Amino acid sequence: MNAKKTDAEMLGIYKGLWQIEDAFRVTKSDLETRPVFLSRQDRIEAHFLVCFIALYIAKPLAKRLDNKHPIAKIATSLNSMSYTFLEDNLFVGDYCDDVSADVKEKLGIDLDRKYLTRGGIRTILENTKKSAGFLSRIIQNNALFTWDYD
C-alpha cells in the first residue's frame, strides 16, 4: 500500500532525517556503543534495546542540563562518580565536577557532597527516583524524535 506523498510531505520527511542521523551519531560516539558480533536474533534485539534506552535517557538528561554539556561528558562524569567507605557509617566522595554541580542545580540530586552516611546515600537515591519523573513524561508523550535540538 504505497500512499502518494506531496512534494511538501516528502520535503518534511527528508528534513527530519537529520534527527535520526544525530541519534545514531550520539549512540555510536557519545555513548560509546561498540560494534558487537552477535548471531542470535534475541541478543541482537536486546543489544539494540539497551542502546536505544541509553539514547532515550541521555538526550532528555542533556536537555534538562540546558544542553550545557555534551552527552559524552555527562556519561564520563557520571561514570567517574563514586564513594569510598571510610569507617562505620561514613563514605567520602571521590569525584565531582561541573556536571555534578549542574545535576544538583537542575535536578536537585546532590552528588557534590564530600562526606555521606548510608542515610544520605539513601536520600540521594530517593531524590533520583523522584526527579526521574521527566522520563516517564517523555515515554507517555512518545516524544523520542521530537526533542528540541537547540
Overview of the molecule:
The structure is a single chain. The chain is elongated and about 70 Å long. The protein is mainly alpha-helical and 150 residues long. The protein has a 3-stranded antiparallel β-sheet with strand order 1-2-3. The protein has one domain (1-145). The chain is 61% helix and 7% strand. It has 6 helices and 3 strands. The longest helix has 24 residues, at 7-30. Residues 142-150 have low confidence and may be disordered. The chain has helices spanning 7-30, 41-64, 71-80, 98-107, 118-131, 133-141; strands spanning 83-87, 90-93, 115-116.
List the keywords.
3-stranded antiparallel beta sheet; mainly alpha; 150 residues; 6 helices; disordered C terminus
